[in-house]
Amino acid sequence: MYFEQGVAKTGKPVAVKIFRDVISDLNHEQFRNEFCNLTKVQHYNIVQFLGYCCEREQTPIECNGRIVLAENTHRALCFEFMHNGSLQKHLSDESCGLDWDTRYKIIKGTCEGLRHIHEGLEKSLLHLDLKPDNILLDKNMVPKIADFGLSRIFGDQQTRSTQGSLGTLKEISKKFDIFSLGVIIIMIVSGPESYHKCLDHMPSGKFVDQVLKSWRKRWQAACNSDFSFEACCHQVETCIQIALDCLEKDSHKRPDIVKMIEELNKIEPGINKVTDITAKFYMKSICFVQ
């Protein structure tokens, strides 16, 4: 499958996900599964589904000296266009790239989108393929979860067994998405390579200290008061700790999405105050330069 940019009748740009015409039950099943799941979800932090196309076309071809009709199936899903593309291309370490306020909003928005499919529907929906490539950003850098081709409806079941690639049974639950979300949060806060540092047997405390040290270095010029500086550090530390909790090997120890958002809400007032302070400092810098 691949994406093309199109234009709606209203003149607005749209994204078109085109499924390749291959003889594969999996290809058809993924299209059907994504379409059915998209019709069930509507949320500010989930990419808006606009429509679909499924057409069959017969084309004459030569086969063993005879002309036969080959049937081609054209399938496509249409979505709102996301001007800033995927989160993947915006990931960077603490020293450059997106500012903290933007990174936090992406974290919080992604959590809100996941809460909707986990807790806000009549039957829970598991995404099962959360990664930076599947989080899209609109022109205002608002994150929206995309690509529901592998997602599954769970209903009242807490877990479900599925066949693994080597024939083993694997248990799938909401905590599968939570683990993926933890990896994403770490990448947002400290860059695309940071998750591997966690895997290199680095103690969690040392990892947190390294991340905070890098952010402090970036903020030394911008945070011109003790309160704003420490508030920023507290916010980063909270997000990293939430992410590390999501990576618990024992899935039962991982937090649920509601608990995660409750923890983020506790630091929200500090986020707003830091944003105001940083904005005032930026404006003063501009006036000074002029």
Task: Describe the secondary structure blueprint for this structure.
Blueprint: E1 2-7, E2 13-19, H1 25-38, E3 49-63, E4 66-80, H2 100-119, E5 124-126, E6 135-137, E7 143-145, E8 152-155, E9 159-163, E10 169-173, H3 174-190, H4 194-199, H5 204-219, H6 226-246, H7 257-266, H8 268-289
Antiparallel strand pairs: 1-2, 2-4, 3-4, 5-8, 6-7, 9-10
Helix pairs in contact: 2-3, 2-7, 3-6, 5-6, 6-8
Concise structural overview:
The protein is α+β, with helices and mostly antiparallel strands and 290 residues long. 43% of the residues lie in helices and 23% in strands. It folds into two domains: 2-80, Phosphorylase Kinase, domain 1 (2-Layer Sandwich), CATH 3.30.200.20; 87-289, Transferase(Phosphotransferase), domain 1 (Orthogonal Bundle).
Can you characterise this structure?
With 290 residues, the protein is an alpha+beta fold. The protein folds into 2 domains: 79 residues, 2-Layer Sandwich (Phosphorylase Kinase, domain 1); 203 residues, Transferase(Phosphotransferase) domain 1 (Transferase(Phosphotransferase), domain 1). 43% of the residues lie in helices and 23% in strands. It has a 4-stranded antiparallel sheet, covered by helices on one side. A two-stranded antiparallel sheet has the order 5-8. It has a two-stranded antiparallel ribbon with strand order 6-7. The radius of gyration is 22 Å and the shape is elongated. The N and C termini lie far apart (51 Å).
